[in-house]
Amino acid sequence: MRSPHQLDVREDILQATWPISMFRSRAGCRVQPSSVSRFAVRDLTVAATVICSIMLSACGADSTTDPAASASTASTATPTMGSTSVTGAPAPTTSPAAPQVPSASPPGAPTAADRSQTVEKLLVFVVENHSLDQMQSQMPYTRGLAEQYGYANNFVALTHPSLPNYLAIAGGSTFGVHDDGPPSAHSASGSSVFGAAIDAGKTARLYAEAMTTACQRESHGTYAVKHNPWAYFVDETAQCQRDDVPLDRLANDVNSGSLPTVGMVIPDMCNDAHDCPLSRADDWMKRYVGIVLTGPDWRSGRLAVVITADEDDWRHGNKILTVVVHPSLHHAVVTDRLDHYSLSQAYATLAGIQPLGRARSAAPLLSAFGLATP
């Protein structure tokens, strides 16, 4: 009586000239060579593979491949670089999984289905006294955002020094200011874009690092009032004291999804690169802009973030880097001439108010980047 793991391979099953010994499986399946005829086939390798599979199945052997058989089939089944098919390989019964492509977006960036295409809020971060070329070459994180999302390569500041540029963003005018004096020397009458937004039923907030009290009108330590334009608008003192706040308020507003319609973030005199290297400012941006990009306002598409400078270093035609970060943007480069009045106009558009002063005739910032507004 034969063993359950012995099988006679007769002439009608095995029609090939091949060393019968190679068809012996690990499970003890044994071939009887006496009844095997001599018949040539074109592809001995394929025949060997098929016959061995039949015999292993009949013998009840396990699915472990015999080393000799593996070596025999591997030589014909290994594709070369650039190969699109493998000769003699069986067609796959299921489609291979699609390769995973790394995303260039921040972790957890929203998909198109998750976000709004209409910008409702604008948050502006301001760096000090550096040109387009300087910021591009010395701020790798900020430049990375510019390359990934968008930037303007023909954005110019209006004048020197700092204060009149900030006033132009906030009020659509430089108010005849030519220096960096405090509010006691330069009080601006009328509305700022911050106060006008609140009067229109929207929200506004300025976050100033190193400021010790709300709407602080005197410089102290690394806080410079010349970089806090809302503090100069004397007709809006009550609003300023409520919503011109220290920087530590920012994280809570980000996490709760309550960033303002009109928002500005002012680093201190070191972190804005006024007194420290641009690399320090870039690290600071990575921290705080990075926080904003994880919040529900930006993830939903409601919020656009701008990183700009107040002015250059007086040596590059006042051309500055202005980055626009929104989930819908993908390496947008705007060549139109834009300036700080364009930024003031963008604030007014989102607040639903008439642009202030010279911002009325400014080239539009948001539409230049193809961003929809209410």
Question: Gist?
Answer:
This protein is of the alpha/beta class and 374 residues long.
Secondary-structure map:
Layout (H helix, E strand, L loop, with lengths): L43 H16 L7 H11 L43 E7 L4 H7 L1 H9 L1 E7 L5 H10 L21 H7 L4 E5 L28 H7 E3 L3 H6 L6 E5 L11 H15 L3 H4 L3 E7 L9 E7 L6 E3 L3 E2 H12 L23
Helix pairs in contact: 1-2, 5-11, 6-11
Describe the structure.
This protein is an alpha/beta fold. It folds into two domains: 20-73, no CATH class; 113-369, Alkaline Phosphatase, subunit A (3-Layer(aba) Sandwich). It is built from eleven helices and nine strands. The chain has helices at 44-59, 67-77, 132-138, 140-148, 162-171, 193-199, 237-243, 250-255, 278-292, 296-299, 340-351; strands at residues 121-127, 150-156, 204-208, 244-246, 262-266, 303-309, 319-325, 332-334, 338-339. The longest helix is centred in the N-terminal third of the chain and has 16 residues, at 44-59. The N and C termini lie far apart (89 Å).
